[in-house]
Amino acid sequence: MYVAVKGGEAAILHSYRLLAQQRRGDAAVPELSVAQIRQQMKLAVDRVMAEGSLYDPELAALAIKQACGDLVEAIFLLRAYRATLPRLGCTLALRTEAMALARRISATFKDLPGGQILGPTYDYTQRLLDFSLLAAATEPPPTAAGPTLPPEQSTPRVVDLLNQEGLIERCPPPEGDPEPMDLTREPLRFPADRATRLQNLARGDEGYLLAMAYSTQRGYSHTHPFVGEIRFGTVAVELAPEELDFTLSIGDIELTECEMVNQFVGSPSEPPQFTRGYGLAFGHSERKAMAMSLVDRSLRASELGEAVQSPAQMQEFVLSHSDSLEASGFVQHLKLPHYVDFQSELDLVRRLRAEAQAQSQAAPPPSAATPPSPKAQP
Amino acid sequence: MNAPTLGTVLHAPTSASETAASVNFAYLDERSKRMIRRALLKAVAIPGYQVPFGSREMPLPYGWGTGGIQVTAAVIGPNDTLKVIDQGSDDTVNAVNIRRFFQRTAGVPITTQTRAATLIQTRHRIPETPLREGQILVYQVPVPEPLQRLEPRETETRTLHALAEYGLMHVKLYEDIARHGHIATTYDYPVMVNDRYLMSPSPIPKFDNPKLHLNPALQLFGAGREKRIYAVPPYTKVESLSFDDHPFEVQRWEATCALCGATDSFLDEVIIDDQGTRQHTCSDSDHCQQRRDAPSAGAA
Prior knowledge:
The complex is a heterodimer.
Chain A: H1 8-24, H2 34-40, H3 42-52, H4 57-66, H5 71-82, E1 100-105, H6 158-162, H7 194-203, H8 206-217, E2 225-239, E3 248-264, E4 273-282, H9 286-298, H10 315-320, H11 324-332, H12 339-361
Antiparallel strand pairs in A: 1-2, 2-3, 3-4
Helix pairs in contact in A: 2-4, 3-4, 3-5, 4-5, 7-9, 8-9
Chain B: H1 30-45, E1 51-52, H2 66-75, E2 82-86, H3 93-105, E3 119-123, E4 136-140, H4 154-162, H5 167-180, E5 191-193, E6 197-199, H6 209-212, E7 218-223, E8 228-232, E9 238-240, E10 267-271, E11 278-282, H7 285-293
Parallel strand pairs in B: 2-3, 3-4, 4-7
Antiparallel strand pairs in B: 1-8, 5-6, 5-9, 7-8, 10-11
């Protein structure tokens, strides 16, 4: 007697317990605290905040702990939490030129006002496993001198310096710059304007953006990019409540910003100049910000009169597949039962096989079926 | 559709092992529900038309029923009785999980009986028991756009719907016939709603397609990941695409249900030994149970 798939509820509850066990690991090893994750896995926390669209290092660290280190799962947890929060308002545009810089580099100029600041980076580490980290650390590393800039002094962006000559496109906010649409409240529609595209990319999966950006460097829409500037540091977030005639700073956030500069030979509507691609991410996420700026630029193809030929230039392709929640959910939904669909397909395949067999026995093969006549449709 | 008024906050019934945090009735906040209800009203007003909506990130993954869950959350009220099925069965893990979600967040009575339910959320099946007026059937939809496999660009398919230009789909079905002698689509079989919009019935087997037609219940379709809602109001004409010389047909089995003896229900086959011996049973677990409980069971 066939036993139907019953007991699903008990199985689910049991799987929760097994999951908790797996997450905790060997109980003889001290448990990780959320504070430890927040402090010592900063780059993971930053990625979860960026793609989770929620700036809260503590909750991001909690999500990483709960997700057993699976960052895409942690991003999901943070997003689901975020969806329950009310939307209180819209901040003023961030003034990244006033960023308190921890790092700032330009690949286009050897030196520039404000200077190059290397800051914390893995770029020039020699990637050798540091076996000294295997031993339990005893003393914290010596503190390094921070950047010498006074925090309040603003450092102009490189692209703005280049603009004195008018060699680079300007992207002034339009008259009465409208509040951007909120992708977390409204569905993505096509064609999407640049603000919407940037929002989508900012939430997009880092690996996906990296691959799309990489494809533009390998002949699938070549864009001649240069890093105008990458900067990382803290910026104040300001609100202008309607009932007050001054702005309020509600806190500082860490950001990575990338301005990519791309050669552009001109089009019937635009003179030859440098065009720009923009990337912005919460926390310290240079790979993400750079990839985003390349993809932003390639998505501007039709606006700049370039032929749209490669995947990275097609906004429906890029934007519809960038979200790790959507992609991960739909790919993994294949784990769900599909008995009914499969039964239908089984039936069809058996029928097709039987027909093919009958046909091969009855030689010679008959000509194609007589064309059916379509039923008239209004 | 007897939802509580704006701002009603209920505490989810919690067992000790589950979250102690309070959530709004049926999880979604009332503003989000209102947004979804607006989309639903538009969908009911234009049968078969896909209405974009601000799909929220639910605590279940996209592709696992988030669209259906949001629609259910928007229409469920404390007086509803909920049934959740996946592949026709109340007992599959995903159905269990979604039912638990609403038990925890809405605390409504649940049932496995199609007749007792006021609201039924389903994945991949329409119950065998005929629905009646006042019932709502909520479908989980993975891909709301019936033309997506033929034309992946939404900007294009939107235009095709606007012009009611469905030649692409007719050509696809025609090519099936030219190649195989019959239409090789067995589930998610495209339908024309109210003589106007081509619609995906969600991946139900085409066996269920005739039940869409002139159904007394309200049928709502939610696609969370693709952020679309559509509807078939009660007693709406729903026609499965066909050709004059190749009329629409549903699957038939030579077998009968091994448990209840049904000859007219959708049968799943299961392999019961290492030699691959197969047995057929009803996919609709409630239908099968009702037949076995009835005094005249096994008469078929």
